């Protein structure tokens, strides 16, 4: 069952692997996971809203590495999908495999607005993608910094309402609270975990203290009576300044500090949308270019190893997603099916008297209509049209899919098609490659499409005496007016 028409079992039926411990307000860092991911998108309104409402989906407070359960060693390739999904095997080792591949849930956020999400297990994804494995390992130090920063915020919140009343610093437990506040202020001032923001946090603390330091009412003993001058205590001497102020005012300093840390938190969340390492450190992968259906087919393959798609356009998107995540096995499968169908479609059109332009403008659609209706073409009857549309309209296709278009246009040697359709849509680098290919074919009669591999270079048969050597070819790159 390579293709599914609209009857694909919806992955939202899978039991959810919830991750509620990525939030400042959640204390328990234990995560109960199941074998399958939750694919029911979570809308913004459904997400839990914390009191700071700035960075939902943050990392666990635990200092345990996000990939601590995956040591990066290659997993035995003879582990099949049945063993992974059933959690058992004939030798009784299934439960061990289950534990090995389903330990660390991470979040994939997708959609144009990144307002949908699903859970996937890092160990399983890393098994098929060395790229993901490297990214999360590179994010390990930052992950630990995030965890330490989160712990600081949690402790600071305990000194603010509603956890701590405004008059608590004058109550029976004031000494403990004052000592805790003093310790946290000094810790953030000297060694805030996120190095990039350390100076910013330090300046915020010094400014908050300086505001109090300019008011005589904030001193235990006013400077005029104590016999000291403010200039003798510069802003950087935080510890000495705190000793002169009423300890009850520490709560106000803590508030200003917490506001600053929450701004850092919000900024890091936004930055993670464009920074793979920061996203990994937060336990996330951002895929704004992909829709829900493409993610579903990817997740279905990942957890069951069943290859499914709806049509050629969907297959193009699935291939691009696989390449984006570095899942080479799936990308190769997608490209193989797509390439074969693409070439077969063009060959059929040529055999029935249509040129490439006729195929693309719909003139040859009747050749494929019956195949689409009865399903005999596996949803790929319009593969060539879908591939061209994907490359020319959906910007940023993979180079492998783009190569299918370049080879087809070069084989057609239709410069009219090139000028009308191709030249306005492709970037300069792709156009240079296409013109090189077309130049090498200009002195030959139009053949049927060659059954060649994607990304293959010009075959030795084409390097005849009639075709100029590569050394004598003009600089086509300089002739592109783009």
TrEMBL record:
Residues 448-466 have a biased composition (Basic and acidic residues). Residues 18-46 have a biased composition (Polar residues). Residues 1-46, 441-482 are annotated as: Disordered. Residues 467-476 have a biased composition (Acidic residues). It comes from the Eukaryota. This is BTB domain-containing protein.
């Amino acid at each position: 069952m390579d293709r599914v028409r609209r009857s694909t079992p919806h992955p939202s039926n899978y039991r959810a692997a919830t991750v509620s411990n990525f939030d400042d307000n959640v204390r328990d860092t234990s995560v109960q996971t199941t074998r399958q991911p939750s694919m029911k998108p979570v809308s913004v309104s459904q997400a839990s809203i914390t009191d700071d409402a700035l960075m939902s989906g943050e990392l666990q407070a635990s200092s345990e590495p996000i990939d601590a359960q995956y040591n990066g060693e290659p997993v035995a390739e003879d582990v099949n999908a049945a063993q992974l999904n059933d959690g058992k095997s004939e030798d009784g080792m299934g439960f061990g495999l289950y534990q090995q591949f389903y330990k660390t849930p991470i979040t994939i956020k997708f959609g144009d607005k990144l307002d949908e999400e699903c859970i996937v297990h890092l160990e399983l994804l890393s098994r098929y993608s060395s790229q993901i494995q490297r990214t999360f390992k590179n994010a390990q130090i930052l992950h630990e910094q995030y965890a330490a920063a989160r712990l600081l915020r949690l402790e600071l919140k305990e000194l603010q309402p509603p956890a701590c009343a405004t008059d608590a610093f004058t109550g029976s437990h004031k000494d403990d609270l004052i000592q805790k506040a003093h310790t946290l202020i000094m810790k953030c001032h000297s060694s805030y975990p996120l190095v990039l923001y350390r100076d910013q946090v330090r300046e915020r603390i010094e400014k908050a203290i300086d505001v109090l330091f300019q008011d005589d009412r904030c001193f235990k003993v006013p400077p005029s009576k104590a016999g000291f001058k403010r200039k003798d205590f510069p802003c950087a001497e935080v510890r000495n300044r705190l000793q002169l102020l009423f300890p009850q005012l520490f709560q106000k300093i803590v508030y200003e500090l917490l506001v600053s840390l929450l701004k850092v938190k919000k900024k890091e969340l936004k930055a993670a949308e464009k920074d793979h390492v920061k996203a990994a450190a937060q336990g996330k992968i951002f895929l704004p270019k992909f829709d829900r259906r493409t993610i579903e087919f990817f997740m279905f393959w990942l957890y069951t190893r069943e290859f499914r798609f709806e049509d050629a356009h969907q297959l193009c998107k699935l291939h691009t997603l696989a390449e984006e995540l570095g899942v080479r096995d799936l990308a190769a499968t997608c490209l193989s099916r797509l390439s074969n169908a693409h070439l077969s479609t063009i060959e059929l059109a040529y055999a029935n008297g249509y040129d490439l332009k006729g195929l693309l403008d719909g003139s040859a659609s009747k050749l494929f209509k019956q195949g689409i209706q009865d399903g005999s073409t596996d949803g790929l009857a319009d593969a060539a049209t879908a591939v061209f549309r994907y490359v020319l309209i959906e910007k940023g296709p993979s180079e492998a899919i783009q190569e299918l278009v370049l080879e087809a246009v070069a084989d057609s040697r239709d410069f009219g098609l090139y000028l009308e359709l191709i030249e306005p849509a492709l970037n300069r680098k792709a156009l240079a490659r296409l013109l090189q290919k077309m130049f090498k074919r200009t002195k030959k009669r139009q053949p049927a499409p060659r059954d060649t591999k994607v990304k293959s270079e010009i075959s030795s048969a084409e390097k005849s005496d009639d075709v100029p050597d590569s050394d004598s070819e003009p600089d086509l790159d300089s002739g592109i007016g783009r």
